Amino acid sequence: MVRMLKLTSAILLAVFMAISANAAIVGEEIELGNGKQFRQPLVLEPGQKYSVSISVQSAQPNAQVTLTVEFADDGGTVKEYISTQRGLGGEGRWTVVGLEFTTPDSPRQAQLVLTADQPGTYRWDSLAVQKLHETVNEVQQYWEERFAKHGAVYTGLVVDARHLDVRRGISPRVYSESGQLLYGGVLASAEFVQDVGVVAYGRELDPDLIKRIQVDPEYAYARPLIVEAVGVVDPARTGVYVSEADAERILQALSQYDFFARYAVIFLIN
What is the DSSP letter of 153? Predict the structure, then answer.
């Protein structure tokens, strides 16, 4: 039975490592959809925290891609995996798709897998692995360097849906008015979904709730990007859409720091 990976919300000093010489190719074309996949072996240490990200572009408007990291045994059977979805939006726009996770304690063969809901030609670039560290000094250094480069950055998304009949869900989604999937949640173990969730819910943005978007328990920096939901998108009433202006604000914020990779999302509901 496939066992899902445990997830971590730690955010930390990023150490970029090239996957291989071929990974440096800029804008390499790939065919996705209709069962076609892009696969890339990853060299990851057991029991360590990582972030994996890749930039993707498509000529298909509002195409959705799924990023998965699989862990297989020596016989090639996938034993563990973690997966998330992201919408690519307008034609030709680059979108970074990322995940943070802890690798299995036992050595496994790791692979990145990229798939799409619409068949066609896509391009990828900037495949990167970040090994995440957790010491106070490393976290402080990471954020001081980021502040020096970008100024104050947003560390999480807050969706105010208190004026709508939005209900709690296992993996709620956030769309733009034009249909771009901004946040697709993450496939996770039942324990994670029940105990932590891929979003946090509350009525007010109180100090306890704001901890969800705090960058690290040892570094109490949190800057919420607050947007208002303008409608509900599914019969279960768990997903929402936001205005095009707010969607653009979210995309701009993600270009500086991908807080979706660590599930830093809060829904305010009644």
Answer: -
